[in-house]
Amino acid sequence: MTAERQAGPLALTLRADEAAAFADALGSQRPGWVPLIFPARWLALPEIRAAVAELADLTDGLALHETQSFDCLVPLRPGTTYTVTATVRRVGENPPRLSVQAIAATADGTPCVRFQAGLRIVPRTAPP
Amino acid sequence: MTALPIVGTTLPAWSVRAPIDAAWVRRYAGASGDDNPLHVDPAVARAAGFAGPIVPGMMLLGLCERAIRAWYPDAEILRLAGRFLQPVVTPAALTLTGRVALVNAAKATFILRVLVGVPDAAPACMADATLRPPQTQA
Questions:
Q1: How many domains does chain B contain in total?
Q2: Which residue of chain A is at minimal alpha-carbon distance from B61?
Q3: pTM for the full model?
Q4: CATH number of residue B60's parent domain
């Protein structure tokens, strides 16, 4: 069995209030700013979480971010609908590690942002 | 024509305006959807071996983006990649430093290396940003 799961394509409209709340949570009040890292919000989608949970035991473990990257091809704009597709792979053992590779594209297929997360699964209870 | 910085240029330290505390992390968790209990639940964080709730790595990367926007407000950020080196336990006062690591004249881009620092500790995050300055008149 391949340790890989797909999530999406998921159609998502980037709402201006979501972008503003995200920017505000980073301490910025710059009007209209969509942070490059905004797709972090999409990594929390239930479909992507479910794919992560299928490849790692999150009953006894918790996902901890080790790496993260964003490649901007076209800046994200509020009011635009994007199609988000993600591939989750198990890439390591002891400790378990997962890679989440995702892309957000416009409805006509133009890729806008590629983003990748590296996750390490840590035990919920640390060894004594 | 594009004005590129010189390799080794060091940017003035950029400090986050207030310590990152539990309330700020909860606000970020709400806005980002990242409700990982390691970031918001002291008991879960301690059971997992941390001294307390830890700041989400993505939030550190977002602060790197803010610092980059402050240093180079008109440049395009083409890529931002971070590695989370040390957990940052809340509350935490953070200072970000930046240094031009590489210039690619052919592509008219440069790489800025950003370190997120916590007092008396090793850097918590190292991020590399690929930037393209705005075109200027020849």
A1: 1
A2: A37
A3: 0.95
A4: 3.10.129.10
